[in-house]
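Worked example 2:
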Amino acid sequence: MDESFLKLIYPYMSNKTYLKLRKYKHHNTTRLNHLYNVAVYSYWIGKKLNSFCTIDFEALMVGALLHDFYFISSKDENIAIYWMTHCELAEKNAIKHFNITEKERNIILAHMFPLAKSLPSSKEAWIVSFADKWSAVLEACFNKNYKLPSFT
């Protein structure tokens, strides 16, 4: 990945609380790896779209990296309740641990579109919603994961 991508993700991928996500299973990977995968796909899509429309890469990366920022296992919850509440759990943790904008909050809350309570309100929210679904398919069906960067 290029230097600008690594610079954008560093505050999250070097945060001790955030790195605890490696303990949680998510699809056929860890939640940390899933979030990184979504960030990679979102960044790639954003770079392609940025040639004809302006993309807010900081908001894009924050939303991609924090959209599933919660510390419960889906196995511990009723699956219907889990699907309907994890966006809000991720948003609360993002607010608690990081300084996020309204746009970034919407990316997190709307990433489960069309099942989310919130609609995507920006290009960046649409990108993360799509990248999340794409990543989930590749992880679950093909065991596709990007290698996590090391910032230590």
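The first helix runs from residue 3 to 13. The helical segments are 3-13, 16-19, 31-49, 57-66, 79-97, 102-110, 123-142.
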